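Support request, please re-run this one:
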Amino acid sequence: MSDEPTIAQASPFKVELEEGKRYAWCRCGLSKNQPYCDGAHKDTSFTPMMYVAEKSGPHYMCGCKQTKSEPMCDGTHNKLDQS
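Re-run finished. Output below.
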């Protein structure tokens, strides 16, 4: 069991969120329903992050799972070694 998340993609996921709606953001990177949790973390130490959208519209959720601004992208993917 790894303590490091899997990079789902090295760029953010552009999603449409609805104000007041609750979303489960995948922290482990294993979900097949990115950026949302599908339960794939069950054999890991990860749990999803529950997030309630503050406003409706387009948002950029982290795809690399390294953001310091969970669940939103903070640009960390630009600094990752992709070799």
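The first strand starts at residue 13 and ends at 17. The mean pLDDT is 95.
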